[in-house]
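Think of the structure tokens as a kind of shorthand, similar to the way a musician reads notation: each symbol stands for something richer, in this case the local conformation of the backbone. In the example below we present two proteins back to back. Begin with the first one, reading the sequence and then the tokens, and try to describe in your own words what changes along the chain.
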Amino acid sequence: MPTTDIDTAMLTLGENARRASRAMMRASGAAKNQALHAMADALGDSRAELKAANAQDVDAARAAGLEPALLDRLTLSDKSLDLMISGLRQIAALPDPVGTITASTLRPNGMRVAQMRVPLGVIGIIYESRPNVTIDAAALCLKSGNAAILRGGSEAVHSNIALGDVVQAGLRAAALPAEAVQVVNTTDRAAVGKLITMTEHIDVIVPRGGKGLIARLANEARVPLIKHLDGNCHVYIDAAADPEKALAIALNAKTYRYGICGAMETLLVDASVAVSILPRIAAAFAAHGVELRGCPRTRDIVPAAKPATDEDWATEYLAPILAVRIVDSLDEAIEHIARWGSGHTDAIVTEDLSAAQRFQREVDSSSVYVNLPTCFADGFEYGLGAEIGISTNRLHARGPVGLEGLTTLKWVLSGEGQTRG
């Protein structure tokens, strides 16, 4: 498709989304929930058509040599469709954040000042080869009263278009505008370039994908992003750590799942407990096939560890590899995280309340834990019901982004005719 045609098509999507966003802003919670349940019903009724569309994508991806793990993410099975249906009904059951009033105060002149939670407007979601994101993103944007433009990976184009049709059928069933959720139907990368610069039509972009995608968007976007680039997460075992907790937390933080952004990538161990605890931890990781890369002091205690370099402290491995460093104090641990961390999720293991408080206050990450593994970095685990992504931004949403993170606040004042003197 010529670039001029893509520009025109994307502008049309943007205009439609902006118009639909005004209708979604005033949509009732009942109508939004009706649409979500209608989508769930339509998913169940359209299994054969959805799996046929998905088969086109899977066959093409297999012929192109896509890795087995990525093929698995791409495939729509009955189980994955059942999970999507369940997810839609769970989101319908969540409280509607739109219109809630917070921070209401009565001023001396009788004027009431409050804040109301309202949708962001139009959200662009850019993601890679997981078709389930089409349903998850549509549902979260809809429930929070936003319009959405979804641009999935080229590997899943047929699947995403078919799922988009299901979403729009659900919107129509609830008498809501079908344009509230639109799927970009071209695989041309120019469509992404246009989407991330349409400041007149798009209010925020949420990228869900690999580091390459997010780095490109961070460099090129004119629309604000809700994003994180790296999940370089740390666990610090303090001098006052319970050894059993430390072992269990460190092991779970790394081996729960290697490929998630909340996986621990660097283990910091206080020098006062390193000799007693590191051999046990190293043995546990060896049993899981995790390669250790350590500082010189770590390698004195664990000779099997490979030498660590500065690159190891900076790396998000997303693999069974772990950097290990011995530090002399809480201050040194905090300094290491400040220098090498990505602001995602970091944890301390300690029985010292003052150390725990200092760590949570001074570590500048979107999530900071005490006596918990970093793999808890997930919106469902936080009680958000679902998440659209994790943000390391300092403005607006930070950490796992659920329904509330897809809204903002406006001031609402009411009175009885007071005037300002």
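Once you have a description of the first chain, move to the second and do the same.
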Amino acid sequence: MANGDDEVEEAELSPAARIFHAPRFNCHILSIIGCSSAVDPAVIKLGLQQTLIKHPRFSSKLNIKGRKMKWIPTTVNLQDHIINPKVDPNMESPDRFVEDYISHLTTMTMEITKPLWELHILNIKTSNAQSICVLKIHHSIGDGASLMSLLLACTRKTSDPESLPTIPVQKRAGSNTTSGVWWFFLATWMVLRMIWNTLVDLILFSATVLFLKDTKTPFKGTSRVDLKPKRLVYRTVSLDDIKLVKTKMNTTINDVILGVTQAGLSRYLNQECGENDKKGGEAKQNKIRLRATVLMNLRPTPGIQSLAELMSKESKQTKWGWGNRIGYIVLPFKIGIQKEALEYVRQAKATIDRKKLSLEAPCTFRIAKLAVDIFGVKVAAGIAHRFLSNTTMAYSNVVGPLEEISFYGHPILFLAPTVYGHPHALTIHYQSYFNKMTIVVAVDPDVIPNPHKLCDHLEESLNIIKNAALDKGPDAA
């Protein structure tokens, strides 16, 4: 089926998108959509015709000529992109089947002779959904934030099928009432701190590329981990519980989930890997260097409405363009058993507050672009691969809609995105949706053989932190 009557011009790939096509950096995004009803493939096909394939990136194929990579407009045949395998509705373990199916997807490459996306429809009842859709997209098409906004532009509120979802908008700081002199000194101090933090972060970034490695732990991947199959599991918890801790401790949701992650990883190492609560075990854990790599979206999010308009105009782009405008930040994790559960959140808040006063992400974006321009994709990808290999895990938090939504008329119960193809054995994503938060864990099963146990520890850590916040009352911070 054609993608429309308007012509779409060829577009060169961004530096980050070109890196995602390097031999050892072939990254893909998987988004698992749990629905509360069986999925009708014909309805999905009609919906995609009217929305997703009108977007230039979803109706273009990759063309490689020497060192040049371009998106070339093409005719989209939806039969090549919508996969609807026959499944046994009476199988013994539907959850296991879905896990195995998604794991198999991580071993399959997509042909560049067609647009680099697929939608897999699994009409099988699992423990948490009546059916599952798996959207597989090559990371070169766009970064996670823009792709999530585009996906949500294909949905509507369940309560109002004509309305787009509502996503939280980050509030700008209000007017500053500080007097002129004090405001000047405060602004000067903040600028100096930002310059210093950025300098330190770039030195640590360079050291990580050259020699600085994380401690070898049961989370650390081995060589060629990027080429191994991944196993993806997810667990849905109450977003209200996270908001309760946030309110009690006067922090942010990001602070809370980072604290929960640090607590969960510490508990996993302590209980599953032979570390006990003795002083020797605690001292050993406290000496662990465990860092997560976070990809930061540097483009101001255009919003769902803008993307809906973009698709209706087909060939036009937002003023910020498409593709990947992302920079790296390195997030150090505090690993160790804390006597007070709320200390995990306090430590997380200190880490995030410090990272907010740094230009690490835009600087690493510029460094990556410069490396591609000067040395080419192969060398730039090698640098990125080495940098990521010297850290332990990937970590992300994606904000979702505030109300229940439907995917072309199919009510959604949860969203669970992840990424694979990068050199980490462990990736943890958090995805908010309505009043829920889904924890998504993707692992190399040879390194972490039981990811469900890790999910158990993350969920239990949230409960422990929530109960501690309730016990502390208004003085929890």
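Compare your description with these statements about the second chain. Residues 228 and 398 are 25 Å apart (CA to CA).
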